[in-house]
Amino acid sequence: MIFVQVGLFYLLLSLAALAFWLLEPSCASGACSAVAQLDSFLGRPWWLWGALYYSVAGILCLGLLKNRLTGTLLAAGAVFHAGLVGYGYAVTGHVCPACWKFAAIGALLAVFYWGLPDKKPGHTAYVSAGPARALAVIALTLLVVNPGTKPVAVPPATAAAMAAVTESQSGSFKTGEPKATNETAPDQIRVFTSDERETYLDLREKPALFFAAWCPHCLEALRDAARLSPEKRPYLVVTYLREGDAEKAREKLAENGLAGESYYLAENPPEGVQGVPALVWMEGSELRHVEGAGAIAEKLGIPKLLGYAEIPSPPDGGGKNAALAAALINGKIIQPGEVFSFNRVVGPRTVSRGFVEGRSIVETVYGPKAVPDVGGGVCRTATALHLAVLKAGLQVVERHDHSMPVNYAGLGNDAAVAWPYWDFRFRNTSGKTLAIKTRSDHGKLRVELWALR
């Protein structure tokens, strides 16, 4: 029975590969599709090759006795697929979210096949072999016919304009407007606007961010670009175009904080760029580029979230004090190696400074007890900051436990503070300048630690 299930699982993988091919004719991840070497094999999408392989594997598992040749084929396929995933990661720094799952399932099925006892296929196996053969025929037919999508480099009108441009004129460049220029100049990139006008982007003015509308790894780069002020954002260029990408790009920009932002179309990125997202800029007389959202964020100086924490904050006096303390530490800058002191920044918790009566845990002759106290509740803010520091991997210099459990943090994760004695302090060991960002609304208190690049 298990022997049959291995073959049936291969049939399901074949069907899944065909489904993925119908949704996206090549690998839907920037780890594969954006890399020319991995986009296809012999001009055929990997999904179709996978569908054929899995269907053949299903036929062999369902229709034959266990044998070394079939086992070797299954093992080789699993190793090859793992190699593709590994190569994609080595080139782009990303792992295809779909491919690794296919590779993992294929490896498990190969292991199961080798571990199963020899057994003659039953009636179910022979019946299932028919659909397996049909899938193999379908996959093979699609590979021969190769009905891939028609690449949409640019609309027809602009394609004609591109072919017509053979000479250029000098003149000042204005972003987003057609301009004749030297097409071979390294600091000028020929693109097309969304309304089909040819133009050139001057990389000496600002860099260009190349992304693909179908690339899931590009979304992080777009969100990072949205964090920049409009005048500091790079040109946004949609590349590796497919049918409908011009409209899809507009939707992707809107979904990631760049609604209404101008964007351009380019059939391919500049020479040397192997994947997206990619940032291209001029450095002296040379064209430079980096690939991957992390490298792009580093180059653009986009802050990186190192750690964050969110805890409940009730709408009582304690919640108001926690929100006030959060506002006082919001925006504080911590240099590399500097020790941050919660008490030093928040200061005395007094009525004159806006604090109200909350509840604090104090030691009494009867043991720890929650009593009314002006400023009570700021420990929530100190605790949220402590949790964010832990996630960021920073060094805690001073922290105190509450003398009784609290309902907003686990044992050992809370941070009790009391002016001017008990403090919460941590050292910035990130090697980067840090900024504290806080927000208190909808019954939640959130603290974030950002590394400024």
By DSSP (H or I, 4+ residues per run), the number of helices equals: 13
Count of individual domains: 3
Distance between the ends: 58 Å
| Helical coverage, percent range | 25-40%
What is the makeup of the main sheet? 7 strands, mixed
Low-confidence stretches: 25-31, 33-38, 148-182
| Strand fraction | 15-25%
Protein name: Membrane protein
Transmembrane segments: 46-65, 72-92, 98-116, 125-145
InterPro entries: Glycopeptide_resist_protein (IPR052913), Thioredoxin-like_sf (IPR036249), Vancomycin_resist_VanW (IPR007391), VKOR_sf (IPR038354)
Pfam families: VanW
What would a concise description of this structure say?
By secondary structure, this protein is α+β, with helices and mostly antiparallel strands. The protein has helices spanning 2-23, 36-39, 46-63, 68-92, 99-115, 123-145, 156-164, 218-227, 245-255, 293-300, 317-329, 342-346, 378-392; strands spanning 40-41, 44-45, 188-193, 198-202, 208-211, 235-238, 264-265, 278-283, 286-291, 304-312, 333-334, 339-341, 357-364, 367-374, 395-398, 425-427, 433-441, 444-452.
Description of the molecule:
The structure is a single chain. With 453 residues, the protein is α+β, with helices and mostly antiparallel strands. The protein folds into three domains: 2-145, no CATH class; 156-300, Glutaredoxin, CATH 3.40.30; 304-452, no CATH class. Helix content is 40%, strand content 20%. A seven-stranded mixed sheet has the order 4-3-7-6-5-8-9. It has a four-stranded antiparallel sheet with strand order 10-18-17-11. Helix 3 (46-63) runs antiparallel to helix 4, helix 3 (46-63) runs antiparallel to helix 6 (123-145) and helix 11 (317-329) packs across helix 13 (378-392).
